Amino acid sequence: MASAQRGDALAYERLLEDLLPFVRGIVRARLGDDANLEDVVQDVLLAIHTARHTFQAGRELEPWVRTIARNAVIDSVRRRSRQRARDAGVDAAELAEDPSARASAEAEPLPRELERALEKLPSVQREAVLLLKVYGLSVVEAATRARTTPGALKLRAHRGYRLLRDLLGRERP
Predict the structure, then answer these.
(1) Which of 5, 21, 32, 51 is the most buried (most CB within 10 A)?
(2) Do the Cβ atoms of 42 and 67 come closer than 8 Å?
(3) Cα gap 37→21, rounded to integer Å
């Protein structure tokens, strides 16, 4: 990777060839024999390419690649989940505006205790938690829907998580 970062095209090509079976194994372990497996593998390789400047020489390459692969798998699952919701005629923006519509849109409703706790959150915190955790939107997508910045949305969500833990009587980790 260090040679690839210095611009050695041959080293970069060898690196990607060597990483391909490793990446494919990580993705397969998380997705099984999913039809989108190769698409996710390509997403991982593209993410490695895009983020290669962030790799720090002297560090282990494997955990860095595993993290990128894990995030790509999560992104893929979220995209497919949103796509299924769109295909079913459910709009995430509508769900965010009307949390009660969520129950009819999802196969498994939230536990009643959690729904009651969510209702007690301030509206901006509830919206942040719903968009990020229930609907699985990325921070950027959720911030766009909430008409705020990603940083502000993350702060709202963090405060919402803390309040939910208190409301549900759970210990902090």
Answers:
(1) 5
(2) no
(3) 12
Closest CA to 132 of 115, 165, 155: 155
Token readout for 10 is 């041959």
| Residue appearing with tokens 């690196």 | 15
Handedness of CA 93, 152, 119, 76 (dihedral sign): positive
Rg over CA atoms, the chain: 20
* Token pair belonging to 37: 């497996």
CA torsion angle for 36, 39, 44, 46 (degrees, to 10)?
A: -160
pTM for the full predicted model = 0.49
> What are 19-74's pLDDT values in tens digits?
999 999 999 988 877 778 889 999 999 988 888 888 888 889 999 999 999 888 88
Rounded CA-CA distance 110/99 in Å is 11
